[in-house]
């Protein structure tokens, strides 16, 4: 994951084709361990591919995930969506919890707060 983050930082910093040395430089600048094998593997996977197309393809795959994964799909979507997505996911979680409480309260006591 660190190697991928370093690659993304390099690309977002304007280096459209980062090399292994570029990634090593980024990783060592923050004191992260450099794994040569992971760097070589990542660079072989993204060689000749456009970064924005890779991101778009990944988003499409996330969207097509089945809802049977429950909260995991919401968490992943929140991660992709950034702060706004995280806020929406947290709001949805709160609504689900509130909905569960309301239903269980009604079933347990057979009255509502406003009766």
From TrEMBL:
<comment type="function">
    <text>Plays an important role in the elongation step of protein synthesis.</text>
</comment>
<dbReference type="GO" id="GO:0003735">
    <property type="term" value="F:structural constituent of ribosome"/>
</dbReference>
<dbReference type="Pfam" id="PF00428">
    <property type="entry name" value="Ribosomal_60s"/>
</dbReference>
<comment type="similarity">
    <text>Belongs to the eukaryotic ribosomal protein P1/P2 family.</text>
</comment>
<feature type="region of interest" description="Disordered">
    <location>
        <begin position="85"/>
        <end position="115"/>
    </location>
</feature>
<dbReference type="InterPro" id="IPR038716">
    <property type="entry name" value="P1/P2_N_sf"/>
</dbReference>
<feature type="compositionally biased region" description="Basic and acidic residues">
    <location>
        <begin position="91"/>
        <end position="101"/>
    </location>
</feature>
<protein>
    <submittedName>
        <fullName>Large ribosomal subunit protein P2B</fullName>
    </submittedName>
</protein>
<dbReference type="GO" id="GO:0022625">
    <property type="term" value="C:cytosolic large ribosomal subunit"/>
</dbReference>
<keyword id="KW-0689">Ribosomal protein</keyword>
<dbReference type="GO" id="GO:0002182">
    <property type="term" value="P:cytoplasmic translational elongation"/>
</dbReference>
<dbReference type="InterPro" id="IPR044076">
    <property type="entry name" value="Ribosomal_P2"/>
</dbReference>
<keyword id="KW-0687">Ribonucleoprotein</keyword>
<comment type="subunit">
    <text>P1 and P2 exist as dimers at the large ribosomal subunit.</text>
</comment>
<dbReference type="InterPro" id="IPR027534">
    <property type="entry name" value="Ribosomal_P1/P2"/>
</dbReference>
């Amino acid at each position: 994951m660190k190697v991928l983050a370093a690659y993304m930082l390099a690309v977002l910093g304007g280096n459209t084709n980062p090399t292994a040395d570029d990634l090593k430089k980024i990783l060592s600048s923050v004191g992260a361990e450099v794994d040569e094998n992971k760097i070589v593997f990542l660079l072989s996977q993204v060689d000749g591919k456009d970064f924005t197309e890779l991101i778009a393809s990944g988003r499409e795959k996330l969207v097509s995930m089945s809802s049977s994964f429950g909260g995991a799909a919401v968490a992943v979507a929140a991660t992709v969506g950034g702060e706004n997505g995280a806020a929406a996911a947290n709001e949805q979680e709160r609504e689900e919890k509130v909905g569960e409480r309301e239903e269980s309260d009604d079933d347990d006591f057979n009255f509502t707060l406003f009766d």
